[in-house]
Design a protein that fits this description.
By secondary structure, the chain is of the alpha+beta class. The chain contains three helices and seven strands, in the order βαββαββαββ. The longest helix has 14 residues. The chain binds tetrahydrodeoxyuridine.
């Protein structure tokens, strides 16, 4: 038997103003994308912006449906749109922000488990780490890779196919 430990390091900025310009402009696009969210059931408006290696920024927002499971999170709407539009492009970073009652949340919004699984697969396909920038009215956190948020990812099928 062995005891193992995992460590992840990430950066914490006290506000968006402290962020380097490249990331703050991506996060700003995520904030703008919250305005295009359709969330009449949760009233939780999420926006995501993905920077591709071809320079494009692809935005997504949560789109809810009366049949609840049919809705989709902001992160997956962004990465699926990016994958469907620029299939060869690598995803370099994703920024995420959320608003409630028209105001940015006080703490960062992290991608849900299903979104982490989807994002990590795009990260693997791209072969480069995808930064995750989670914003809020207060602090902003930057993770250097999606895998840091989902270390024990399901990727067994990738061993044989799917890459
Ligand atoms: N949601 C996202 O879009 N991204 C997340 O990371 C967390 C949750 C959405 C799903 C649903 O429309 C609403 O937020 C409340 O869960």
């Amino acid at each position: 038997m062995q005891n193992k430990q995992l460590n992840i390091s990430y950066q914490v900025f006290q506000s968006m103003d402290e962020l380097p310009a490249e990331w703050s402009s991506l996060l700003q696009k995520a904030v703008e994308a919250t305005e295009r969210s359709y969330a009449p059931f949760s009233n939780f408006n999420v926006g995501a912006a993905i920077l591709l290696d071809n320079g494009q920024v692809v935005c997504g927002s949560n789109q809810e449906n009366a049949a609840f499971p049919s809705g989709l999170c902001a992160e997956r709407s962004a990465c699926y749109y990016a994958g469907a539009t620029w299939p060869g492009a690598k995803m370099l970073a994703i920024a995420i922000a959320a608003k409630q009652d028209g105001k940015l949340t006080a703490t960062p919004t992290y991608p849900c488990g299903a979104c982490r699984q989807a994002l990590v697969q795009y990260e693997s396909r791209g072969g480069v780490p995808m930064k995750v920038i989670v914003g809020s009215a207060g602090r902003v956190e930057v993770f250097s890779s999606v895998r840091d948020l989902l270390p024990f990812v399901f990727d067994n099928l990738d061993d044989n196919q799917g890459k």
